[in-house]
Amino acid sequence: MSFKFEDVTLTGWILLAVLIAFGVALLAIARNKQKWTPQMLANAAICMALSFVLSYIRLFKLPQGGSVTPASLLPILAFAYYHGTVPGLVVGIAYGFLQMIQDPWIVGAVQAALDYPLAFGCIAFAGVVGQMQRKHGWNELASWLAAVLAVGLGRFICHVLSGVVFFADYASGSGMSPLVYSLSYNSFVFVDLAICLVVVAFPQVRKALARMSVKK
Prior knowledge:
By secondary structure, the protein is mainly α.
């Protein structure tokens, strides 16, 4: 029986992409030479705990998963911003699994990977922006804006892909295509991150978060 690319379903391609993403993440972690200091481990634990507690305060909850919270992602986003891409990736994926345990909405393994560890693993993008800011001396507030938007876009794409493939049935009664429905439904991500932007716009907040970058 010959293999044909057109015989591979969209779900199959997404599963392949998920596996590749996990492979790249594991490779990056394995090759990373950055040492996890006691301070980094303490910061990771504190940031994950703060984000987890804040995620229970839901300003708005959606029926098929997802909610708007009072800047619950900001602590782990700040950890990635100040400690780098790979540590941010590790903490983001770990936090995604915590979210999966906290309030799961799961219809399959691929959907669970997209909506939880991969979506929250996009926290690593904040690490990329943070490293660039320190290297090139970018404006601090503008860098935070870029970090939040990068994380939001990555998370949004993961949720939209999940919605198109696994929650298409919910679009049938709305008069919208699965893609349009998923785009509109998952726009809550930007509301959630807009709250992060408002909070981090205060210099006092950025000063407090920057204490994580101080080496002891």
